[in-house]
Design a protein that fits this description.
Blueprint lengths: L1 H4 L26 E2 L1 H14 L1 H4 L22 H10 L12 H12 L8 E2 L3 H9 L24 H4 L2 H9 L11 E6 L4 E9 L3 E6 L4 E5 L3 E6 L14 H12 L5
Antiparallel strand pairs: 1-2, 3-4, 3-7, 4-5, 5-6
Helix pairs in contact: 2-5, 4-5, 6-9, 8-9
Length: 258
């Protein structure tokens, strides 16, 4: 049991070369998991992994399984290989039956959300959609390139789990974090400022306005300050196919600048 408890303790220490025995995952398409897979993985995690990784997956320094933060960026196949083969850093090789292996990878990729179903497509196709049909580069910045009118996505693959990314693409308003909500400020002199809030303290609000200018506003000079709960980003549930959304999610997961 102790061996199982420490099974994932070194996940992320190394990326192994894909072996010939590619039957590590039992799903028809790598990266696609059902709620049943995730629930099975959740039971396995609770029974065998909590002692080392903790209930939220972040008990080991440098690793946060729930957020998908490893010591090195990894694909689903890399995770499966690490779990089954161990690492030179001290994690033992461990044999799981196919359902257990699929389940634990699914549970990690779902961000510990057993109500989610995760589908991750092809990253290269996702990038093409991101830069083309989706027109995401018109607003988002990646790796120092692009506008600042929307949140920078350079490390979104670390910050968001796949299920969260899928929800954000399908229905941005439902997944909008409070800090990313657009704001509309009317100053006492009648000027209106629209933009994205970056920070707020007792006396000031800092935002980047719709012309990509960094603005700091004193609250005492405001006539009104409204936080908009609807995202300026369009909902892609009706604009992209399920396959295209899965591909975009796969591309976003590769964005892991630290």
């Amino acid at each position: 049991m102790r061996l199982r408890a420490c099974l994932l303790a070194s996940v992320g220490l190394t990326i192994l070369v894909a072996p010939a025995d590619a039957q590590l995952l039992t799903v028809d398409h790598p990266g696609q998991y059902t709620q049943e897979d995730i629930a099975r993985g959740g039971l396995f995690y609770t029974a065998n992994c909590v002692q080392c990784h903790g209930g939220d997956g972040g008990q080991i320094s440098g690793i946060d399984l729930r957020r998908g933060l490893f010591r090195r960026s990894q694909s689903d196949e890399d995770l499966a290989q690490t779990i089954t083969r161990g690492t030179p850093g001290g994690m033992p090789a461990f044999k799981l039956d196919p359902a257990e292996l699929t389940g634990i990878v699914a549970f990690i990729r779902a961000g510990f959300d057993t109500s989610a179903s995760v589908r991750v497509g092809d990253a290269s196709r996702g990038r093409a959609v991101f830069e083309g049909k989706g027109e995401c580069v018109a607003c988002h910045r990646v790796a120092g390139k692009g506008p600042r009118s929307a949140p920078d996505l350079s490390d979104i693959g670390i910050a968001r789990a796949p299920a969260m990314l899928e929800r954000a693409v399908r229905d941005p308003s439902a997944a909008l974090l409070p800090i990313n909500r657009p704001v509309r400020i009317v100053m006492r002199d009648g000027r209106a400022i629209r933009g994205r809030r970056l920070n707020e303290d007792t006396h000031t609000v800092q935002l980047i306005d719709d012309k990509e200018r960094l603005v700091s506003v004193l609250k005492k000079d405001m006539r009104s300050f409204d936080v908009v709960t609807e995202s300026a980003m369009p909902a892609y549930a009706t604009k992209l196919s399920s396959d295209e959304i899965a591909d975009v999610v796969a591309y976003l997961l590769t964005l892991r600048k630290q």
